[in-house]
Design goal:
alpha/beta; 293 residues; 9 helices; 2 domains; 4-stranded antiparallel beta sheet; Rossmann fold; single chain; Alpha-Beta Plaits
Length: 293
């Protein structure tokens, strides 16, 4: 199917309203793109963080009368004489196939591979986790997930128990189980994450060793030898009392989802009860690990 898009240069104050209006007048999808290549980082609670100068890109069926769309935007006050916009035809492609072609098996550490189901396994003798991108966060492509996977690969997990706090797709818990952990628990606030983790565990043959809980339903006495939490710096600091209590005596902790500039404040919270290792950094993101004192 052919498509046409309109790209409108907007501001962080107006982009959300513009997006809502484009949905109302028939846009198939609306996305934001930073027009100054400024990275988007951690939002404040309840905040939708945009950029100082934001391009709003709306996709329409190619048969749409785009002049009618422009007139509607002008009449609604979203375009004026100073507004910059561009209308572009989009090449008709099999986007799903193109996306699949660009998702490859990835190696983490010495033993661990994350492989999409439609690709051939590069090393049948390695520890292979079969995982397809889906609605829940976590496929290994983000530096924070990669840092956590490499840390797990470097641990002796044989016979250990593991908690994946903020499990998302379940990738860390599943990887730990396939690396030798006796059992694992995944915890998340999102029911979609619990479902995705369950499905991915079944695909990898480890569902019988993985328990999943919404955060509010986790057992009060829950603890494990290894706890990993790949969320964000703010929640990690706020949830220090909760996360630290999950670690058994002599257990180890791995934290990520933390920008390099945020690592000192997270370390300050956790060094009260953990002997921390040197912070590991990759592409502006960091991983904090340590052992319970």
């Amino acid at each position: 199917m052919a498509w046409i898009q309109i790209r409108i240069n907007s501001t962080n104050q107006q982009a959300e309203k513009l997006s809502d209006y484009l949905d109302e007048i028939g846009a198939v999808s609306v996305t934001f793109m930073d027009s100054q290549d400024t990275p988007i980082f951690e939002p404040l609670p309840g905040e939708t963080r945009l950029w100082g100068n934001t391009d709003v890109i709306a996709l329409f069926d190619a048969e749409t009368d785009m002049q009618r769309i422009v007139r509607a935007l002008q009449q609604a006050g979203h375009l004026d004489e100073q507004s910059a916009y561009k209308i572009e035809q989009i090449e008709d492609k099999d986007w799903e196939r193109e996306w699949m072609d660009n998702f490859h098996p990835m190696q983490f550490g010495r033993r661990l591979w994350i492989c999409p189901s439609w690709r051939e396994i590069p090393d049948p003798d390695a520890v292979n986790v079969m995982l397809d991108p889906g609605l829940a966060f976590g496929t290994g492509t983000h530096p924070t997930t990669a840092l956590c996977l490499e840390w797990l690969d470097g641990l002796d997990l044989e016979g250990k128990t593991v908690i994946d706090f903020g499990c998302g797709s379940g990738i860390l818990a599943i990887a730990a189980l396939k690396l030798g952990a006796k059992s694992a628990v995944g915890i998340d606030i999102d029911p979609q994450a619990i479902l995705a983790s369950k499905n991915n565990a079944e695909q990898n043959g480890v569902a019988d060793r993985l328990q999943l809980f919404l955060s509010q339903n986790k057992p009060a006495d829950l603890q494990a030898d290894v706890v990993v939490a790949n969320i964000l710096a703010g929640p990690l600091k706020e949830l220090y009392p909760v996360i630290s209590r999950l670690v058994k005596p002599q257990g180890v902790l791995g934290l990520s989802g933390i920008l390099e500039t945020q690592a000192p404040s997270v370390c300050e919270a956790y060094e009260q009860t953990f002997a921390l290792d040197e912070v590991k950094v990759r592409e502006e993101w960091s991983r904090i690990t340590g052992k319970l004192k």
